[in-house]
Amino acid sequence: QAIGETLEWELGMFWELDEQGQALRFVDLWHVPQLDAEEFVQDSRGRTFGLGEGLVGRTWAAGKPIWVPDVVVDPLFRRTKLAEKVGLHGAFAFPVQKGNQIYGVMEFFFRAIREPDQDVLEMVGNLGIRVGLYIDRRRTEEDLRRTEARLVEEQRLAEVAGAIALGDEVQ
């Protein structure tokens, strides 16, 4: 939402790389209240994109932001008919990543044709790296919490086993 509002785009979607790293899957979206794109959104919710497929798949493959002035005339955009139906034209996408590790892709749309803006592409490319670092940190923290919980449980089980071995009552 913050990206869309700041850059005055009208629809934003987040696509996450699945655990096997085989496809990007729809996760969440934001749009301006005056945009009626429900049919486009519903179609997007049910899609996945492989490496190099559509705008989000091409962004994943490139590992850098991509801008499309008009998705309606882009032969590689897979949702052309629905985009045209709801009036979406301009689009850009950028990877959410840490180094070469892609976590997902953010995709934004506008109802008018928009020519590429190199400053915006550089800014969102840097933002994608920052978001990727945040995701990486959160995943590391979650892994650490799970490891700590497992170690506490293993210690408890070892204490019970030791008590049983000594013939003590376990309470």
Range of helix content: 40-55%
Cα(first) to Cα(last) distance is: 53 Å
How many strands?
A: 6
Going across the biggest sheet, name each strand in turn: 3-2-1-6-5-4
Number of helices: 5
Give the overall shape, derived from the CA principal axes: elongated
Poorly predicted regions are none
Helix/sheet category:
alpha+beta
Computed over alpha carbons, the radius of gyration is 22 Å
Order of helices and strands: HEEHEHEHEEH
Average pLDDT, rounded to a whole number, is: 89
Largest sheet features? 6 strands, antiparallel
What would you note in describing this structure?
With 171 residues, this protein is α+β, with helices and mostly antiparallel strands. The chain has five helices and six strands; from the N terminus they run H-E-E-H-E-H-E-H-E-E-H. Strand 1 (11-17) and strand 2 (24-31) form a beta hairpin. Helix 2 packs antiparallel against helix 4. The model has no long low-confidence stretch (mean pLDDT 89).
